[in-house]
Amino acid sequence: MGTIVWLSSELMFFAALFAAYFTIRNISPNLWAQETAKLDVPFAVTTTTILVLSSLTCQFGVFAAERGKPGRSGKLYQVGQWGMREWFVLTYIMGSIFIAGQATEYATLVTEHVTIASSPYGSLFYLATGFHGLHVIGGLLAFLLVIGRTFAARKFTHEQAISAIVVSYYWHFVDIVWVGLFATIYLIQ
Q: Where are the transmembrane segments (predicted)?
């Protein structure tokens, strides 16, 4: 219950960022047209696809946790035999690729003189995507914690399965927020 209340407060935080984005965009439409032309939409589609698919791998990890299966029972290449750890490690890798893609995009935009101090567009772009990136990093740390706890414990317990489920709530939330940000920033130009 606490996680749902906390995620609700996070939703309000991101709603404020969306409101600021649309307000400033409405005031400076010419600036938006100029700055959004610098975005690499195909690259963003690729990283977004990876992040959205990571929600699927995360959910497969939850299904394994609910079955009481922390680790794989077959060879690594036997995906059907994977446990929660393998699915969560794959989710972690996909989330890390998303963060690396975001860092790459930031570096490219900085070379094109889009910075947090360059314009209202730059400020809102970096605030919205940056805070989202911090949330993704928080989710990645949570995955490491859940995976680590399964190695430290002698037996996989119901509480560990609940931890996996709670982390999945957070991860799905982060993905849904990104879909909204992606549509707002990259598609509604």
A: 43-65, 86-104, 124-148, 169-188
3-state helix, strand, coil in the chain (%, to 5): 80, 0, 20
> Taking Cα atoms as reference points, which of 174, 164, 175 lies closest to residue 84?
164
Quick check: 134 pLDDT over 90?
Answer: yes
User: 31 pLDDT band (50/70/90 cuts)?
Assistant: confident
Question: Tell me, what CATH number does 10's domain have?
Answer: 1.20.120.80
Q: What are phi and psi of 166, to 5 degrees?
A: -65, -40
d(CA 155, CA 100) in angstroms, rounded, equals 35
Owning domain of residue 50:
2-187
The count of structural domains within the chain is 1
- Greater confidence (21 vs 57) lies with 57
Report the percentage of the chain scoring pLDDT > 70. 99
Residue linked to tokens 């059907």: 80
One-character DSSP codes across 10-68 = HHHHHHHHHHHHHHHHHH-HHHHHHHHTT--HHHHHHHHHHHHHHHHHHHHHHHHHHTT
Cα Rg, the chain, nearest whole Å: 19
